[in-house]
Design brief:
Shape: flat
Number of strands: 3
Structural class: mainly alpha
Number of helices: 9
Helix content: 40-55%
Largest sheet: 3 strands, antiparallel
Strand content: 5-15%
Strand order of the largest sheet: 1-2-3
Length: 218
């Protein structure tokens, strides 16, 4: 009943769909507070329990511990802008504007459609979100930190890493070929050729077309 009430089952099934074991890597502070009788009942009223002095004090300590860890993580991000400005030559950037205006964003992470940025404005470290309007050069159509893609990539990396492709067949590539031919390639394509980026794919396509035209002018 506890799992079904809070929807944990669906989340665990998604994480375990590859049959792998998932271990918690977030070390939480120890809270030695016994739950009251009847706590797992759907009708249980939690308000009086949370208002007990020892319970509210424990949760306040938990909040402070979590915030302290967040600050320890954000502090290097705040200092990152100055460090990067001293050693980085950015593409498509007017560096004189950076030197004059100091506009370097210190990114802590990215999730969904947003960057999570760190700033020390007002004398305190804060994190805030900013919309990734250019989809990170148009390559993040599904958003940052997509959990399904991250889990699939981690599973594939753990099973294969990087393997040579000529005359080699493995399940993910073969399945992707089949899905592409049944989808966008339906009715005109018979095989799939993989390239590593958009510009190279265009070049490969042009070379294939020129070769076909030379061999079969009709």
């Amino acid at each position: 009943p506890f799992v079904s009430k809070y929807g944990n089952g669906a989340a665990l099934r998604q994480m375990l769909k590859h049959g792998d074991q998932v271990d918690c890597i977030i070390q939480m502070p120890v809270m030695s507070i016994p739950l009251p009788a009847g706590a797992l009942e759907a009708s249980f009223d939690w308000a009086p329990w949370f208002s007990l002095p020892h319970v509210s004090r424990s949760f306040a300590e938990l909040k402070e511990a979590i915030l302290a860890r967040l600050m320890r993580r954000l502090l290097p991000s705040v200092e990152l802008a100055e460090r990067a400005r001293a050693v980085t030559w950015w593409p498509f950037t007017q560096h004189r504007d950076i030197e004059r205006e100091g506009r370097v964003l210190a990114m802590d992470s990215a999730y969904g459609d947003d960057y999570v940025l760190a700033d020390s404005g007002g004398g305190r470290i804060v994190d805030y979100r900013r919309f990734d309007g250019c989809a990170s050069w148009w390559t993040q159509g599904v958003g940052h930190g997509n959990p399904e893609i991250a889990l699939s990539a981690a599973w594939a990396a753990g099973r294969y890493g990087h393997v040579i492709f000529p005359e080699i067949a493995h399940e993910p590539a073969t399945q992707l070929c089949e899905e592409l031919l049944a989808g966008v390639g339906a009715g005109w394509a018979s095989r799939v050729f993989f390239s590593d980026n958009g510009s190279t794919a265009v070049e490969v396509g042009m070379k294939m077309a020129m070769r076909l035209a030379g061999c079969c002018p009709e």
